[in-house]
Write a structure and sequence with these properties.
Layout: E1 2-3, H1 5-19, E2 26-31, H2 33-42, E3 50-54, H3 57-71, E4 74-75, E5 87-92
Parallel strand pairs: 1-3, 2-4
Antiparallel strand pairs: 2-5, 3-5
Length: 97
């Protein structure tokens, strides 16, 4: 299901507040559907990892930039900005990778 920028931002805020920790303890990135499947295989044991499908690459990039510049989340090292990347993902740093 495609989500608006506002919907994705709201979902990530709720997830971080529900899971706990300061925003600076989290990472945000974007990926494609194919990359998402790989992340899920490697991260089956943590509930801190979430994915949200944006309406476009531009929306995904905008959401990622919002969290990096406003809330100081780290950009995920495994973030992929190729033309197919329309999925925003977030995870707590000490849990993932």
């Amino acid at each position: 299901m495609l989500e608006t920028r506002h919907g994705i931002i709201s979902s990530i805020h709720k997830h971080i507040k529900g899971y706990g920790g300061r925003y600076q303890e989290w990472c945000v990135g974007i990926c494609s559907t194919k990359d998402r499947e790989i992340f899920q295989i490697h991260q089956a044991t943590s509930d801190s990892l979430i994915f949200r499908k944006a309406q476009s690459l531009e929306d995904a990039q905008s959401v990622m930039a919002y969290f990096i510049y406003i809330y100081e989340l780290s950009r995920a090292a495994n973030s992929n900005d190729d033309g197919n990347s329309d999925i925003v993902f977030t995870y707590k740093k000490d849990i993932f990778f």
